[in-house]
Amino acid sequence: MIFRPACLFSLFAACNAFPAYLRSESPLSAQDNGDANVDGLKRIPDAAHPFQPPGPTDQRGPCPGLNTLANHGYLPRSGIVTQADVIAATAEGFNMGPDLAELLWIISVAYDGDLITGKLSIGGPDPRTAALGSLEPLLGYEGGLDYHSTGPEGDTTATRQDQYFNESRALDPNLYIQMQSIAAKYGGQYTIDAMKDVQKARYDHSLAHNPIFYFLPVEALVMMGAKAFVPAFLSNGTFGAGGIANEASIAAIFGARKLPDGRYENVPERFPRNWFRRGTPFSLVDTLAAILDFYTSRDIPFGANAGRVDAFVPLDIGAITDVNGLACVLKQALQANVPSSIAQPGRDLEAVVSFIVDRIDPLFQDFGCPSYNATQREVYSAASQWNQYGPPASADQRPKYGQTSS
Ligand SMILES: *[C@@H]1O[C@H](CO)[C@@H](O)[C@H](O)[C@H]1NC(C)=O
Ligand SMILES: *[C@@H]1O[C@H](CO)[C@@H](O)[C@H](O)[C@H]1NC(C)=O
Ligand SMILES: *[C@@H]1O[C@H](CO)[C@@H](O)[C@H](O)[C@H]1NC(C)=O
Fold first, then answer.
1. Looking at 153, 180, 211, which one is the last position of a domain?
2. Signal sequence: where (predicted)?
3. Fewest C-beta in 10 Å: which of 129, 158, 242, 346?
4. Going by CA atoms, what residue is nearest to atom 8 of ligand 3?
5. Which ligand places an atom closest to the C-alpha of 391?
């Protein structure tokens, strides 16, 4: 499926100032946990998409939203997915804009999937993604979304430990409680400001405890975007237009279940009962605006720990002041940082880079970005050299459900 995004520039012109959902912070924070306005919105899931927990060969991984879609059959329940699957399912289940879904797809398949079949595992590596099945994949190791410190799986996620701590695939119930206690300061709402505090707390923890902490574009941008997705996509109703991102809206999608004794257990992700999808698509430009807001309002500079926790090396890419500038940083990083951050055995880097370049040019053509600058590649490789990439240390790649908070 070839998707041509609607003109990004006209979208951007229409939301020149901050998008509505960012402006709406104060009214929403002031709101109590009362009824969400869900008039006219679509209830998810529909009857054709009942919840079923994953079977023994079904792949599930670090992304709760994709796991939820697969557990309801909006995505193939196997967890082996194509671009068409992801664009259709994220639109149907969450009202994700197709340009955003396409970019996330490009990042995911280029780093972790099969360039020929266009298939990706949303969890660990799986021979079903490869052109030749269980034979050696043609373009090298296809790590699946579990593969660490490539675009989609990185340090400082809200509810998963950094891979360095050896458990990055399943929800950590203690981290869920930490996020919940931050939301409690915002009236129990998982607002943009609450999620910025979560990002800051997770960043500070990684900086202080993870000797191979890595926070560079592309990965760092994905980490911030994913936190903005909590209110944007998990809210019951449209966040910023009467939607509510509270415990009832988000817990089931994160796979967090409260036990009678007050502890939390991680369980397969699902949509809550009586939950209504946002009414308008959340697009690439909305996401870039949210990431810019995260990056400029908390002290979370790009950089990496050089093998020790007291050896942070910042990445200086100049000030980022607007959405166009951020879009160009992302585009540049997709082109320049891929070689440094794809260290998967046997990957054909030229093939990966040209796969990305061919596909992102149309998505980014309206941001006025400078053409590819080879010096940037050197800057990124210097900053990336301490990063350690790889599959999860555990031989069993599947998320372990049933872990409880302490
Ligand atoms: C969503 O909002 C509707 C309308 O206020 C409410 O009836 C429903 O219980 C809410 N669902 C969740 C999961 O909070
Ligand atoms: C992670 O697991 C590896 C392999 O079992 C082990 O060598 C390492 O010490 C563990 N790291 C931490 C932080 O527990
Ligand atoms: C290319 O990138 C380098 C390093 O960030 C920067 O110093 C230089 O000005 C850039 N050159 C152009 C033509 O943008």
1. 153
2. 1-17
3. 346
4. 375
5. 2
Q: 241 and 344 in one domain?
A: no
81-110 burial code (b ≥16 CB/10 A, e <16): bbbebbbbbbbbbbbbbbbbbbbbbbbbbb
* pLDDT at residue 3 greater than cutoff 50: no
Lowest mean pLDDT among 26-30, 171-175, 187-191: 26-30
- Asked if residue 14 has pLDDT above 70, the reply is no
Confidence band, pLDDT 50/70/90 cuts, at residue 148: low
**Cα–Cα distance for residue pair 201/252, rounded to 1 Å:** 23
Question: Quick one: 344 and 209 in the same domain?
Answer: no
Q: Which ligand is nearest to the CA of 380?
A: 3
Residue 75 lies in a domain: yes
Q: How far is CA 207 from the centre of its chain?
A: 20
Query: Going by CA atoms, what residue is nearest to atom 10 of ligand 2?
Result: 166
> What is the residue range of 362's domain?
338-382
Ligand 2: residue whose CA is nearest its atom 12: 165
In a domain, 31, yes or no: no
- For residue 397, being part of any structural domain is answered with no
Quickly state the pLDDT bin for 260 (edges 50, 70, 90).
Answer: very high
Residues 272 and 365 in one domain: no
* CB-defined site of ligand 1, < 6 Å: 35-36, 38, 236, 248-249, 272, 274-276
Secondary element (H or E) of residue 81: strand 80-81
Q: Within this chain, do residues 138 and 178 fall inside the same structural domain, yes or no?
A: no
The answer to whether position 22 is within a domain reads no
With H, G, I as helix, E, B as strand and everything else as coil, classify residue 123: coil
Tell me how many domains the chain contains: 3
Minimum-distance ligand 3 atom for the alpha carbon of 370: 14
335, 373, 381, best to mutate for ligand 3 pocket (most atoms within 8 Å of CB)? 373
Q: What is the mean pLDDT of residues 219-234?
A: 95
Query: Ligand 1 centre from 245 Cα, in Å?
Result: 11
**Pocket-testing residue among 155, 163, 166, ligand 2, by greatest number of atoms within 8 A of Cβ:** 166
Two tokens at 173? 């119930």
Verify whether ligand 2 is closer than 6 Å to residue 165 (CB atom). Answer: yes
Q: What's the token pair of residue 5? A: 């995004």
Higher per-residue confidence, 163 vs 126: 163
Structure tokens at 303: 């950089």
Cα angle vertex 391, ends 390, 397, to 5°? 170
Ligand at minimal distance from the CA of 316 is 3
Q: pTM to 2 decimals?
A: 0.86
